[in-house]
């Protein structure tokens, strides 16, 4: 058995400026979390930093899976979810490496699932107003209206549908058929939430402030936007036609 029921999955691609700091920030919290980094062969040596920390200080709490090339955020998380289920964690988190998600919010996401009994806790920027700091106005508007668009097309009543800061109970990831999740970018985030909602899991939005990265650059590409735009229509179609599994 582990000394923690919780694992934070952090996907990385070229995050050498952030990775050590974010790992230390998570390990300095009062609650004990474990961390799994999924690195896609970052040319800047992100994985080497993680492996040094694993061997020097954080053995048994910090783990890494290395993939050969940049295969996308969605498949990185799916790989991490399978690993976390296999290693029997109960609370499985998604978090970016770049401090746009504040590690100090992890305990509040945990509490929503552990103490309040929700199946999914979403670190949400749009519970009341728009809680985003230092994002270019174009990105704020795009993200905000993307969530409105998803609501309009699918009827899914979550304010922050593209949010990538989350806690799942393991039963959610056991029930969602992970091999049927097909999107990689923002649409991956929408698809995971929408599928959990269609299955009937209880979802809570926990208000957080999203702060744009100070170090490194965003890795999302143009294709990810069109994937999201058309992907939402596919999800609406699925909602009408697909037979979703029953909750575990
Ligand atoms: N392993 C792996 N990691 C990746 C990849 N692409 C991005 N990452 C990692 O995923 C995290 C988020 O990447 P960013 O490039 O900073 O994403 P973003 O555009 O700011 O998107 C964030 O906000 C969106 C909502 O506004 C979210 O939908 C998205 O999931 C993410 O949290 C970072 O830790 C980054 O290194 C990839 O192909 N492979």
From TrEMBL:
Keywords: Glycosyltransferase, Transferase. It comes from the Bacteria. PANTHER family: DOLICHOL-PHOSPHATE MANNOSYLTRANSFERASE SUBUNIT 1 (PTHR43398). Residues 8-175 form the Glycosyltransferase 2-like domain. The lineage of its organism: Bacteria, Pseudomonadati, Bacteroidota, Bacteroidia, Bacteroidales. Belongs to the glycosyltransferase 2 family. This is Polyprenol monophosphomannose synthase.
């Amino acid at each position: 058995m582990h000394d923690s029921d919780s694992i934070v999955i952090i996907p990385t691609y070229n995050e050498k400026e952030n990775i050590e700091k974010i790992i230390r920030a998570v390990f300095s919290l009062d609650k004990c979390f474990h961390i799994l980094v999924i690195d896609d062969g970052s040319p800047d040596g992100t994985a080497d930093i993680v492996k040094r920390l694993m061997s020097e200080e954080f053995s048994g709490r910090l783990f890494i899976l290395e993939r050969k090339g940049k295969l996308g955020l969605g498949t990185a998380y799916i790989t991490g979810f399978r690993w976390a289920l296999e290693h029997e964690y109960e609370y499985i988190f998604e978090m970016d490496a770049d401090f746009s998600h504040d590690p100090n919010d992890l305990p509040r996401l945990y509490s929503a699932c552990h103490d309040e009994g929700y199946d999914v806790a979403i670190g949400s920027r749009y519970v009341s107003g728009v809680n985003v700091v230092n994002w270019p106005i174009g990105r704020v508007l795009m993200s905000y209206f993307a969530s409105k668009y998803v609501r309009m097309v699918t009827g899914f009543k979550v304010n922050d549908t593209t949010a990538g800061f989350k806690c799942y109970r393991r039963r959610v990831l056991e029930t969602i058929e992970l091999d049927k999740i097909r999107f990689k970018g923002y649409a991956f985030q929408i698809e995971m939430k929408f599928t959990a909602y269609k299955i009937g899991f209880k979802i809570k939005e926990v208000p957080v402030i999203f702060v744009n990265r100070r170090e490194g650059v965003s890795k999302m590409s143009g294709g990810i936007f069109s994937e999201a735009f058309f992907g939402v229509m596919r999800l609406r179609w699925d909602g009408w036609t697909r037979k979703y599994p029953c909750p575990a």
